Amino acid sequence: MERVGYFNGIIGNYDEMTVPFGDRSIYYGDAVYDAVLVLDRRPFALDKHLDRLYRSCAMTEIPFDMPRDHLVKEISRLLDASAMGSVMLYLQVTRGTAPRMHEYPADTKPNLLMFTAAASVPPRDKRASLLSIEDLRFRYCNIKTTNLLPNVFAAQKATAAGATEALLHRGERVTEAAHSSILMVKDGKVIMPPLDELILPGITRAIVHEECDAAGIPVEIRIFTVDELMEADEIILCSTTKNVVYVYEIDGKPVGGKDRALGERIQNLVAERVWRETGVRV
Length: 282
Prior knowledge:
Elements: E1 4-7, E2 10-13, H1 24-28, E3 31-39, E4 42-43, H2 46-59, H3 68-81, E5 87-94, E6 111-118, E7 127-134, H4 149-160, E8 165-170, E9 173-177, E10 181-186, E11 189-192, H5 203-215, E12 219-221, H6 226-230, E13 234-239, E14 243-250, E15 253-254, H7 260-278
Parallel strand pairs: 7-8, 7-14, 11-12
Antiparallel strand pairs: 1-2, 1-6, 3-4, 3-5, 5-6, 8-9, 10-11, 10-13, 13-14, 14-15
Helix pairs in contact: 5-7
C-alpha cells in the first residue's frame, strides 16, 4: 500500500480507514500531532519527535499513557506495512471520543491516529521565497496542536502570491513561518528566535543548533525584527519536510546570499546527521 493508515491498533488502507464521529479533534481540534521523516525505513530524530509529542499531550492535559516503547513498536508495525522505504510518518493523539461538550470528558481514552505517505527531501540547492504576514495565531504556538487554521490561511495566502512560505511576525518581531522555523545568519553567527509561547520548538531547528554547537559555529538566541531579517547575510527556513533551505526573496525583494560558505556548511552538517541516523545521503 502506498499510504497506510492506523487507528488504535488497526492498520489498513489510508483511503478506507475511518475515525469515530464523536472524536473531539473533529469538533474542537482537541488533538496534538507530530510528523517524522523516515528514510530507508529508519525514522530520523524519532526520539526528539516523541519527546515533543508527549510534551504536547502533557501541556494540553491529554492523558495519553501509552508507554513510549509500545508506541515505537506500533510505529514499526505501521512502517512494516508500508511498501515504501522513504515516507513521512504522521502521528496524532486526540483527547478521545465523547459526546460534544466543551469541557473535558471524564474517563475518556485518547485515540491514536497515524499514517504514512510518500516523502522526499528537497535538493540542497532549493531556494525559498517568503511573503510577510501578521501573526494572528493564539498564544499556545509552542504546543503542536491541530488548531492550525491561522497557519492554513497564511500558507494559502503565500502560495497564492507565488511564495514558498509565509513569514509570520507580531508587529516587527519575527516569530516563524506557517509551517517552518526561521533563523538568520549575520556576521558568522546563527541567530534564532527565543522559544516562548509564540514559537513552536522545531525539531530541525534543534538539530541545527546542536550541530552548530558541536562544530563551533556561534549561535545566539534573541528576538529579531523584520528589518534585521531583510539585512541578514543568510536566512534559513527549516522543518522536517523542508530540511534546510535558504531564502532568496521576501515580499519580492532580494535577500541573503552573502555567506553561502557558512550556509552550505550548515546544510552539510545537518545532512551528515541524517546520514549517521538513517544511512541515507540527502
